[in-house]
Amino acid sequence: MPSRYTIKTFVENGYYHVYNRGVEKRKIFEDSQDYKVLLNYFKEALLPSPKLDDLKTIFTLQGTSFRGVRRLPKNFHQKVNLIAYCLMPNHFHLLLHQTERENIEGFMRSVFTRYSTFFNKKYQRVGPLFQGIYKAAPIQDDSYLLHLTRYVHQNPSEHNLDIKKAYSSYADYLGLRNTKWIRPEVVLIFFKSQTLPLLKKYNDYRSFVEGYKKDSREILGNLILED
């Protein structure tokens, strides 16, 4: 029987918690360059495509020179929004929003095929890098979305890592960084509107993440995805 959430039902304008880990729980990031390469793939996929005229270069093929554009990776600007992320040595968490039903599938296939190819070439390995098909759980309401960002940003602490130094979007949520292809405002607006009752005790996102007492796992249940 397939694992829960490996068979996915994607909907238009849906929010999803996406998770995967290395095959046999192996590392999928060996050094800082590996993290940065994947983050750059996110950037290329999520920012607007550059103008083709700006990308044209001179290249030679069989002795003949041409001016043109080399093949570009697929672009998902305004199709997929990255709400939050955390990259760990052997797994990752993404909170994604899509505008149309098939966008997340295309995004995941494009970005992680590129990354697997890069990783296997760099480390001279063959075969799958990830443990089967990624999991994607639908996020049904704002409170779950809020708690999932907390869980994702606290994930490093469960592995004895500093959440402020991790490869995650936490710094963007704290206003310490402004990454153009991450959308923290989708969640931070909750603190301005105070529409969620649980936030009445918290002035800002940091106080919620670091001060909320209840374990996110108790609230989120199957949305956690890790097993």
How would the blueprint of this fold be written?
Blueprint: E1 15-21, H1 32-46, H2 52-55, E2 57-61, E3 64-68, E4 80-88, E5 91-98, H3 103-122, E6 135-138, H4 142-158, E7 167-168, H5 170-173, H6 185-193, H7 205-211, H8 216-220
Antiparallel strand pairs: 1-5, 1-6, 2-3, 4-5, 4-7
Major sheet: arrangement of strands: 6-1-5-4-7
- What is the annotated CATH architecture? 2-Layer Sandwich
- Helical fraction equals 25-40%
Question: According to CATH, what is the topology?
Answer: Alpha-Beta Plaits
Number of helices: 8
Q: How many strand segments?
A: 7
Report the span from N to C terminus.
Answer: 16 Å
Oligomer category: single chain
Q: Give me the strand/helix succession.
A: EHHEEEEHEHEHHHH
Overall tally of domains: 1
Give start-end ranges of low-pLDDT stretches. Answer: none
Radius of gyration: 19 Å
Could you describe the largest sheet, including whether it forms a barrel? 5 strands, antiparallel
Query: Looking at the structure, what is the overall shape?
Result: globular
Q: What is the CATH superfamily?
A: Transposase IS200-like
Give the structural class. Answer: alpha+beta
Organism: Candidatus Woesebacteria bacterium RIFCSPHIGHO2_02_FULL_39_13
GO molecular function: DNA binding; transposase activity
Pfam families: Y1_Tnp
InterPro entries: Transposase_17 (IPR002686), Transposase_17_sf (IPR036515)
Summarize the structure.
The protein is α+β, with helices and mostly antiparallel strands.
